[in-house]
């Protein structure tokens, strides 16, 4: 299977006061199209930094990042913003839903950046909500939904534009075990049945079991890779 993400000699250094802190050290990585990757490692190992670089939320100090044949490390901030809107869906730990909007309207938000008309946006959002099992909650606001349901809405919002890549940062970190397992099962279904390529940061070994491929980082370096049986 072809690589969707190709990373070569990637470094990231932050300036903290007078001190330079190198977070990633010459990292090489290939992520295949259709893979479900879990990134694990201790706090400060570079997991979220790597996730943000793959998703185009940050830029590297040096090295290359190619996603679906495009060198995103060479893009300007404006180009990256446009690229993200077309190719990446994001799922965060705390949902980031707009509290005054219904589930339907929250899911429609990414589509406001497209040329779709209002009827098309409503239709696509309803399809995404159906896919995550929440079509019957379309008119509910976030405060009227459980944590697990709010995360389902966030996932529907992330996939409504049919992105190339789904980026998940601790997507179950704020959920109870049952809700977490439901969300992880949903992500696994999106990967296996709908072909979504997923990169997920998690500290939870049980969550990582849902992925097909686990990467362990330590001090900005890949120290271990494991592939689960299909």
From TrEMBL:
Q: Which InterPro entries match?
A: AAA+_ATPase (IPR003593), ABC_transporter-like_ATP-bd (IPR003439), ABC_transporter-like_CS (IPR017871), ABC_transpr_LolD-like (IPR015854), MacB-like_ATP-bd (IPR017911), P-loop_NTPase (IPR027417)
Task: Write down the SMART domains for this protein, in alphabetical order.
Answer: AAA (SM00382)
Lineage: superkingdom: Bacteria
Q: Name one GO cellular component term.
A: transmembrane transporter complex
The residues covered by the ABC transporter domain are 5-230
| Keyword RNA-binding recorded | no
GO MF annotation list: ATP binding; ATP hydrolysis activity; transmembrane transporter activity
Question: What's a Pfam family in this record?
Answer: ABC_tran
Alphabetically list the UniProt keywords. ATP-binding, Nucleotide-binding, Transport
Is the keyword Nucleotide-binding assigned to this protein? yes
Hey, which family's this protein in? Belongs to the ABC transporter superfamily. Macrolide exporter (TC 3.A.1.122) family.
Do you know which PANTHER family this protein is assigned to?
ABC TRANSPORTER ATP-BINDING PROTEIN, IMPORT ATP-BINDING PROTEIN
User: How is this protein named in the record?
Assistant: ABC transporter ATP-binding protein
């Amino acid at each position: 299977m072809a690589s969707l993400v190709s990373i070569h000699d990637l470094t990231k250094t932050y300036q903290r006061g007078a001190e330079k802190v190198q977070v990633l050290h010459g990292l090489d990585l290939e992520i295949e199209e259709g893979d479900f990757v879990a990134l694990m490692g201790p706090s400060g190992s570079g997991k979220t930094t790597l996730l943000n670089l793959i998703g185009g939320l940050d830029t590297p100090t040096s090295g290359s990042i190619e996603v679906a044949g495009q060198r995103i490390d060479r893009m300007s901030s404006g180009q990256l913003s446009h690229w993200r809107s077309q190719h990446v869906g994001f799922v965060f730990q705390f949902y980031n839903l707009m509290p005054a909007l219904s589930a339907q309207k929250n899911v429609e938000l990414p589509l406001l950046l497209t040329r779709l008309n209002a009827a098309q946006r409503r239709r696509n959002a309803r399809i995404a909500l159906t896919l995550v099992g929440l079509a019957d909650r379309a008119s509910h606001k976030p405060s009227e939904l459980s944590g697990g349901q709010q995360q389902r809405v966030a996932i529907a919002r992330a996939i409504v534009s049919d992105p190339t890549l789904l980026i998940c940062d601790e997507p179950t970190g704020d959920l109870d075990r049952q809700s977490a397992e439901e969300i992880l099962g949903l992500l696994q279904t999106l990967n296996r049945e709908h072909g979504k390529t997923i990169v997920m940061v998690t500290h939870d070994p049980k969550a990582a079991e849902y992925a097909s491929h686990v990467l362990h980082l330590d001090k900005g370096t890949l120290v271990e890779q494991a592939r689960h049986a299909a």
